[in-house]
Amino acid sequence: MTQVTPIDLATTRGRLAADRTRLRGWLREYHQSEPLCLLLETRYLCVWLQRWAHWLHCCGHRRIARLVYHLNLVVTGADLPPSSDIGGGWLVTAPVAVTVCGKAGRNFSVGTLAGLGGEMGSVEDRGAGPGLPVVGDNVTIGAHAGVLGALRVGNNVTIAPGCVVRKDVPDDSVVEPSTPRVRVSRRAR
Fold it and tell me: What's the average model confidence in pLDDT over 45-60?
């Protein structure tokens, strides 16, 4: 089992400040009005709850962390376990059905229905826990895309919508899905 790295209150608050700044910039870029209180914005609320659950988890308050995790799951629909360690500047564009289980660097973006998760039964540990992925800085996972298993995704990587990553990805890469092939069934002829 991977050792839990302690995190202090100042680091948690610093990450939350970076998250707020990034979300405000994203909202301005897409011409949406900024809410009166960011905690009323589910995009920020899911990240805010996960940050505090992670801090509680690292401080040894596992039951309270689990309670905050379940609150997050019920209120926002995002599956963000307290053991996940995500750097500052985290952006979740639509939290419902998003799963992030692993370790990611700064400026990590997750699209609609996207995920970062493990492989059941795997004992390989890349630094996030057995079977869990490690993602670098400035990584974007597009809508309906996923990173699965004990693998590494480098820095400055974009994973296009609809992709499933099961192998290591080097720095400065773009992962795109292959072109779908249409096969006409014999009955249609």
Answer: 96
